[in-house]
Amino acid sequence: MTGRTRRKGIFARLFRALLFRRATAKIGIYGPPNAGKTTLANQIIHTFADENEDIGTSTEIPHETRRAVRRAGILIDLKKRTLQNLGHNSDENPTTSSGPAPFTPAEAKSKLRLDIVDTPGLATKIDFHDFMAFGLEETEAKKRAKEATEGVIEAIKWLEDIDGVLLLMDATENPYTQTNIVIIGNLEARGIPVIIAANKIDLAEAAPQRIADAFPQHTVVPISALKGDNMDALYREMTRRFR
Amino acid sequence: MHKCLKCGKIFERLTDAMLKGCPDCGGKLFLYLRPGEELSAAELVKRIEVDEPGPVELEQIESLRILSPGVYELNLNALLERKEIVMRIKKDGSYVVPLSALFKRKGKQ
After folding, report:
1. Does residue A85 contact residue A232 with C-beta atoms inside 8 Å?
2. Pairing between β-strand B64-68 and β-strand A220-222 as defined by DSSP bridges
3. Gap between the Cα atoms of A33 and A62, Å rounded
4. According to the model, what pLDDT value does residue A90 have?
5. Do the Cβ atoms of A119 and A30 come closer than 8 Å?
6. Cβ <8 Å between B72 and A149
7. Whose CB among A40, A224, B21, B39 lies 3.0–4.6 Å from A202's, allowing a Cys bridge?
8. Torsions phi, psi for B102 (to 5 deg)
């Protein structure tokens, strides 16, 4: 049964790849709660669509996003990005300029049209007490727990309709979690292209290499979605993998 | 009878002083012995029941466990690999299968 669905998925993807090369890729941003999924979605939208538009709000309370939100029609245009960088570099903080090498002329021509789906955080246990620790009332915390649980199920349902996954992990946390391992195993089985983004590298305790060591079979791009550090490396990888 | 598990001293009955630990050695663990019973260390080890390890994650059929209102446990493996959702209520082995949702999905296809 799963074999058939998987084969169907691969054929559908091949078919799309051959006939609709320029079709929009649906990219899901997945990961555990508080990894920075919404911050990353906002960062991508600010860079390539509308700098005043937010897909959702980010807070320190886990499970802030409890419904999957889709933003359609984003054009990742590395040429535009190169121009933006040229404009910004003069007033940028020189200490953060240790980003990746500028795009090669061939890369700068890369464009990728995509829909972004910001999904609720995947977790194996959701307990309302955790939300009460952030000052939420019991009724509100219980409601949040219920919605977060529905959110996990919704996020998983969306996988049926996704062409590529940006899997976000918090580089300050241990990557060897059940959630990370289960989701990666399942994405591999489904044949969905994955890029792992090791987020929060702006924090001193971040150890993105630990994530790279944990999942050596995948491309791991260290980023800071909040500060926008190393985002070009991620965009480059996205245009390469999600075409 | 209560036996201190640190020094082995036997007390006929519980005293208030024992609530803070064994009056002789300060040990905080006591074993209750039936009258006339004497246990050696080896027998004591035999008496200890080790809980069987819980079911391995893969063997669990439920995708969602509701432990109490507002406390949920999700089996991501089951959620990712199966379309149907099976819920388990608390730990007593009651399961809920949302049939209406399953039939709806079949109808769509």
Report:
1. yes
2. unpaired
3. 5
4. 45
5. yes
6. yes
7. A224
8. -65, -45
**B51 to chain A, closest Cα gap in Å:** 23
Q: Do B80 and A145 touch (CB under 8 A)?
A: no
Q: For residue A93, what pLDDT is reported? A: 45
Residue A2 lies in a domain: no
CB atoms inside a 10 Å sphere around CB A181: 15
Q: What is the pLDDT of residues A11-65, one digit of tens each?
A: 777 666 655 555 789 999 999 999 999 999 999 999 998 888 898 888 888 898 9
ipTM exceeding the 0.90 mark: no
Of A41, A52, A47, which Cα lies nearest the Cα of A83?
Answer: A47
**Residue A33 belongs to domain spanning:** 23-241
Longest dimension (CA), chain A: 57
Mean residue pLDDT across chain B = 75
CB spacing of B72 vs A126 below 8 angstroms: yes
A181 touches B: beta carbon within 8 Å = no
Residues in chain A with pLDDT values less than 70: 1-8, 14-22, 84-102
pLDDT of A18 reads: 58
Q: What angle do CA A148, A151, A153 make, to 5 degrees?
A: 120
Contact call for A186 and B81, based on CB within 8 A: yes
| Residues of A with Cβ-Cβ distance to B73 under 8 angstroms | 124-126
Nearest CA in chain A to B74: A124
Cα distances (angstroms) measured from residue B26 to each of B5, B14, B84: 10, 15, 56
pLDDT, greater one: B29 or A204? A204
What SS3 string covers chain B? Answer: CEEECCCCCEECCCCHHHHHCCCCCCCCCEEECCCCCCCCHHHHHHHCCCCCCCCCHHHCCCCEEEEECCEEEECHHHHHHCCCCCEEECCCCEEECCHHHHHHHHHHC
Q: Does a structural domain hold residue A81?
A: yes
Query: Is-contact A126 A204, C-beta < 8 A?
Result: no
Domain count, chain A: 1
* CATH code (residue A92): 3.40.50.300
